[in-house]
# Entry
Amino acid sequence: MIPAIRIHGGLLAALPSHTKEGDTLRSIQGMPPVMLNPPPGDAFAVRNDYALAIDYEEMPPMFPITATHYAATWLLDERAPQVKPPILPKRGSGYMNASDSILDVRKLKQYFHVNKNLTMKAVDDVSFQIKKGEIFGLVGETGSGKSTIARTIMGIYPAVEGEIYFKGEMISNQRIFRQNKKKVRRNMQTIFQDSAAALNPRMTIEQIIAEPLRIHRLASGKKELQEKIDRLLLEVGLDSSLKSKYPGEISGGQRQRVAIARCIGMDPDLIIADEPIASLDISIQAQIVTLFQDLQRKYGFTFLFYRA
# Structure
């Protein structure tokens, strides 16, 4: 593998395998740099497994590979040491043993009446069951009703027909849902596709994570609240120095990590992730999926994952 191909090899390794179950994705380390204020040298050196000391000091020139192709990497310099790509470790299954059903959707229908002559059947007779500790994927093309199912499960849309049971309680019944609304909302958390729209742009990262902790009284005082916020940021791979920043000041991958931190702070039984990686580049997608796997192993929550 020549140096010019190594970054492509890292991106290809971040793609999921369709032949092996339970693999942990190999992600590219670090986060993309803020190009408004780039670091000295090669701004992407921190994400390069083969970075040399000079990469952190001086931007590499363009070296010719063929008559029409060039690459900016010090590894092509004649003085650079010869390096070999690492042998990736074999990755085992990460699935948990699942037993009790936590979510049961039966013959769900969700229609939207546009006018007296037109009714849109967004969801028509959908049934599935998710066991406790399971990672359940719901796949369908754009416009097939995946997000509508998620919103109906969460109680945002009342079900037209059918039943939804969460931990044995029929939450599709509006009276039962209202009686247990706070408990259901705490134990059923959602991560949306567009983190920029899901996070309040007028709140700092600290305020975003602290808000549900205060509402559900999961911290007894300011000191415990700060400790929980710092721990949650660390859990999702972020530094506590980001607490004072606003969503618009951080990258898309970092915003999604903040959304995950806010979510797991509730210690939910079920997490509904509505295409949470669709807007991220492939290397960051691998990081987020691997983070989900690690957190699921640690906390044992059930995962309903939507993907187009």
Confidence is low (pLDDT under 50) at residues 1-6, 89-99. Residues 282-299 form the longest helix (18 residues). The longest strand covers residues 101-115.
